[in-house]
Specification:
Layout (H helix, E strand, L loop, with lengths): L1 H12 L19 H18 L12 H13 L13 E3 L7 E13 L5 E11 L3 E3 L1 H12 L2 E2 L1 H16 L4 E9 H4 L10 E6 L6 H11 L6
Parallel strand pairs: 2-5
Antiparallel strand pairs: 1-4, 2-3, 3-6, 6-7
Pfam families: GTP_cyclohydroI
Family: Belongs to the GTP cyclohydrolase I family.
Enzyme class: hydrolase
């Protein structure tokens, strides 16, 4: 048992993912959001009480409920498939055939190993194969997959896969540059480091296309 705990700690401390998909139980949505909030509220109360906090203080009275609502409705809202944005696409009537890049999309996610924030920017691009997607939908897809306990590599892949599915083309790319507070504020406590991940599909695997994309977002060619 100790060996398993040590292995799990090592995986978490080194930010290693065990699954290409977010690990979810089959009964993940067997209870309502309100029921989840009530259950989480009690758990947060227990954590704070165990830490020795006085929950009768006016500043702390509402904390368990606030945290529970935040988990279910906000920072982990992307776990609920009912909240998945509709990726409406349209005919490329103006025949634009070059690369389209949406850069500096803000990423707010949560590390699944320590439940601490991941904060950064995503840069997403595609080349139309006859269909185009609204710019805001690209932001919403990033937001949807970010709002769950995550690993940055998985998040990068999920964004690309969702856009490939919506647009009917493999020619999609994503680069994410983000700070992990589990690295910046605990453990090694390196406040300067950030993590860069990338996923290139179709034409973006070709050196010239990849270089053009990276030039647009001003990152060195190091992938």
């Amino acid at each position: 048992m100790i060996q398993n705990e040590e292995l799990h700690d090592e995986i978490g401390d080194n930010h290693i993912s065990s699954s290409a998909k977010n690990p979810m139980r089959e009964d993940a949505f067997a209870i309502s959001d309100d029921e989840k909030i009530n259950k989480i509220k009690k758990d947060v109360e227990n954590i704070l009480q165990t830490l020795g906090m006085d929950l009768t203080d006016d500043s702390l009275k509402g904390t368990p409920n606030r945290v529970a609502k935040m988990f279910v409705k906000e920072i982990f809202g992307g776990l609920n498939p009912n909240k998945k944005p509709k990726a409406s696409t349209f005919d490329n009537n103006y025949k634009y055939g070059e690369m389209l890049v949406e850069k500096n999309i803000i990423v707010y996610s949560t590390c699944e190993h320590h439940l601490l924030p991941i904060i950064g920017r995503a840069h997403v691009a595609y080349i139309s194969n006859g269909r185009v997607i609204g710019l805001s939908k690209m932001n919403r897809i990033v937001e949807y997959y970010a709002k769950r306990p995550q690993v940055q590599e998985r998040l990068t892949m999920q964004i690309v896969q969702e856009l490939q599915k919506a647009l009917g083309t493999e020619d999609v790319a994503c680069v994410i540059d983000a700070k992990h507070l589990c690295v910046n504020s605990r453990g090694i406590s390196d406040i300067e480091s950030s993590t860069v991940t990338s996923e290139f599909g179709g034409k973006f695997k070709e050196a010239q296309c990849k270089r053009e994309f990276l030039d647009y977002i001003k990152l060195e060619t190091r992938f």
